[in-house]
Amino acid sequence: MGCKIFIDGQEGTTGLKIRNRLQGRNDLELLVIDESERKDLEARLEMIRQADISFLCLPDAASREIAERAGKDCRILDTSTAHRTDSSWVYGFPELSGPQRHRIRKSNRVAVPG
User: How many CB atoms lie within 10 A of CB 111?
Assistant: First the structure.
């Protein structure tokens, strides 16, 4: 199995769309949290630690909370607006400039434009 992906908030509109696009690919492994633990911060953090890449599909406050608690070595793509103007995050819009593509590829914190 390839890259392990966790979608925190996979029950919401954005999370469902990402999950549907990635489901069925044999080069990816989607990590799924037990329904009873999906609101448990520690259980979600454990899933993020296990994943190669995690998508945060959460409201801004929840994205900020879990991003602060996740280790800096955890690779996170945030779909909320919480980190889009945060200078410690890379804005995931590679069309802005060529060097941006390299920063996106190497960063552990990417704020995606939606």
Answer: 26
CA angle, 108 as apex, 106 and 113 as ends, to 5°? 90
- 41-50 helix and 60-69 helix, angle to the nearest 10 degrees: 60
**pLDDT value of residue 85:** 83
* Rounded Cα distance, 51 and 54, in Å: 6
Q: Please state the separation of Cα 24 from the chain's center in Å.
A: 19
* pLDDT tens digits along 50-97: 999 999 999 999 999 999 999 899 999 999 999 988 888 887 766 655
* Listed residue (93, 104, 6) closest to 46, CA to CA: 6
Q: In which residue are the tokens 């914190």 written?
A: 109
3-state secondary structure string, the chain? CCEEEEEECCCCHHHHHHHHHHCCCCCEEEECCCHHHCCCHHHHHHHHHHCCEEEECCCHHHHHHHHHHCCCCCCEEECCCCCCCCCCCEECCHHHCHHHHHHHHHCCEEECCC
